[in-house]
Prior knowledge:
Elements (H helix, E strand, L loop, with lengths): L8 E7 L6 H9 L6 E7 L6 H5 L7 E5 L2
Amino acid sequence: MNVSQVPVISVVIPMFNVEKYIEESIQSVLSQTYHNFELILVDDGCSDNTLKIVNQFDDCRIRLIQQR
């Protein structure tokens, strides 16, 4: 990763059973005109379909951290 690819901004979204909202939240971040960011999704033990929805996204700017 060269210097121009290093994310300048980190967007952090904590998640706990947010399947109703997570797809729209991720889409909102990814659709921004500024692209030099990373999206960090923090799973705090989701037991609904949140992770299934998150895993449908294929974008190298998304990082999933699972707290178990």
